[in-house]
TrEMBL record:
The active site is at 16, 152, 287. It comes from Nakamurella endophytica. Binds 2 magnesium or manganese ions per subunit. PANTHER family: D-ALANINE--D-ALANINE LIGASE (PTHR23132), D-ALANINE--D-ALANINE LIGASE B (PTHR23132:SF23). This is D-alanine--D-alanine ligase. Belongs to the D-alanine--D-alanine ligase family. The gene is ddlA. GO terms for biological process: cell wall organization; peptidoglycan biosynthetic process; regulation of cell shape. One of its GO terms (molecular function) is metal ion binding. The lineage of its organism: Bacteria, Bacillati, Actinomycetota, Actinomycetes, Nakamurellales. Transmembrane segments: none annotated. Mg(2+) 1 binds at residues 263, 276. HAMAP family: Dala_Dala_lig.
Amino acid sequence: MSDRHVLVLAGGLTHEREVSLRSGSRLTEALRRQGTEVTLRDADASLLPWVAEHRPDAAVIALHGGRGENGAVQGLLEMAGIPHVGTRSHDCRLSWDKPTAKTLVQRVGFPTPNWITLAHNTFRDLGAAAVIDALIGALALPLIFKPHQGGSALGASVARTAAEVPNALVQAFAYGDVVLVEQFVEGTEIAVTVVDSADGPRALPAVEIVPDSGVFDYESRYTAGLTTYWAPARLDAATAAAAADLAVAAHQALGLQDVSRTDAIVDASGRVQFLEVNVSPGLTETSLLPMSVEAAGEDLGGLYLGLVEQAIARG
């Protein structure tokens, strides 16, 4: 039984609102099963007055997309003096921007697929056809196009032929003015959750992701039955250890705190390559973090209650 009062933030005005609400509801029930008082709230104009009046012991951010992952809400909680589970506001920016995260992980010695970032005005200024030709010549097909910021694979798509590139660009630019274009690596896609403990960050068992479509896009992530998951992933011991090392290294290199999820690909040679990291992992019935927790033989509510206590101790 816990005498803590925990605020769970979910919803927000982003493309990932519905996913966030599902995450928040699941986490709320998991914490309540631990005997914890929980208030589930949206991040709206009434939030800060409510926080000032009720002063919860800690907050857990189950917001996805910009407002939950770019450090803005974290910064508001920090200004209000409310301890929160998760990465500090300034460090959230490093992982929220995919090219920055890839650069920092690569600098500490871990591989990531080759990439380039392109702004929308580049195509207007230099000519779309010439830029696309140069892009294909430099990186080679197939390519995956992603908004340089954002989550849940919104706006992400794969181009296997030159004819598919313009549409992939349009989809990505619909979610922002800068696009990350990355070599699409065929292999085994995995996700590794990292949790901080008194002994330092530890990796939970990797989850293997096998989407029916071959691409782990938004629909494959959140529609039951469109993706098969293996938890733990079907990796040999050496590859599983390499995946854990990569995830812990990314967690540390990016200054992450309490909990994170690293997405990676195991290529045909068995090399584990970094794709991106998430500071506010989903907690829905098809999300990867809860699968990792279950594969580790742990309880989601108990895990997060422990993280709440860590946050309070820091605060």
